[in-house]
């Protein structure tokens, strides 16, 4: 292209040389659609896609390995837990089976005293007073054993006040000798295990006589 000065202004005029220059300039500045610099970009994109695909495959393989490891760990833990439950159940059964051993040892001592008292009673020359003393000692030993294991007798002597939480009335006897709701007689003693009434005392109580 050429510029000429006409009337103090530059005027553009085409020429063969300028056309050749323009074509070469355009070919260098504007990328070709087929071939040229676009082909190079496509090769870069293909390489990036292959790299991304390779990374995804490696990540999937790592995740699968992690899943396999966790599954194996879970199965091992589940098996260990089942074995623990079996061992624990067996231990509980053993404890239940022999939990009364200390109790039985104390009862054996009481049984020994009863056997000695019976053997003494079978003798023709048995001393009645000695026999009674032996039985009393055995009874005291037995009651001490019960108290040491948390069992105590409910107070329910005749003349004491009736308590519906501790006593069970089986009969009411009208009398003016005692106040109303007073224990007159004990048919069967009651017992408390630690803080729980396991058997109330069976008693008769007084009631006001009818006029």
Automatic annotation (TrEMBL):
- Please list the residue ranges that the record marks as compositionally biased, kind Low complexity: 49-60
Entry-linked InterPro entries? GrpE, GrpE_CC, GrpE_head
Q: Provide the protein's localization.
A: Cytoplasm
GO CC terms of this entry? cytoplasm
The answer, when asked if Cell membrane is one of the entry's keywords, is: no
Name the family.
Belongs to the GrpE family.
Q: What is this protein called?
A: Protein GrpE
What is the species listed in this Swiss-Prot or TrEMBL entry?
Answer: Methanimicrococcus stummii
Gene name as annotated = grpE
């Amino acid at each position: 292209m050429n510029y000429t000065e006409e009337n103090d202004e530059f005027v553009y005029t085409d020429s063969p040389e300028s056309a050749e220059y323009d074509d070469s300039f355009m070919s260098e500045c504007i990328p070709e659609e087929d071939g040229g610099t676009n082909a190079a970009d496509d090769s870069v994109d293909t390489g990036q896609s292959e790299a991304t695909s390779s990374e995804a495959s490696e990540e999937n393989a790592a995740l699968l390995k992690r899943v396999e490891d966790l599954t194996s760990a879970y199965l091992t833990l589940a098996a260990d837990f089942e074995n623990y439950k079996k061992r624990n159940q067996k231990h509980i059964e053993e404890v239940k089976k022999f939990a009364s051993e200390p109790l039985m040892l104390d009862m054996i001592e009481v049984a020994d005293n009863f056997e000695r008292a019976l053997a003494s009673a079978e003798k023709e020359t048995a001393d009645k007073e000695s026999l009674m003393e032996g039985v009393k000692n055995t009874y005291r030993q037995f009651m001490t054993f019960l108290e040491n294991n948390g069992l105590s007798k409910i107070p329910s002597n005749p003349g004491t006040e009736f308590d519906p939480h501790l006593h069970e009335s089986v009969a009411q006897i009208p009398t003016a000798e005692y106040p109303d709701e007073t224990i007159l007689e004990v048919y069967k003693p009651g017992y408390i295990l630690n803080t729980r009434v396991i058997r109330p005392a069976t008693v008769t109580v007084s009631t006001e006589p009818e006029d």
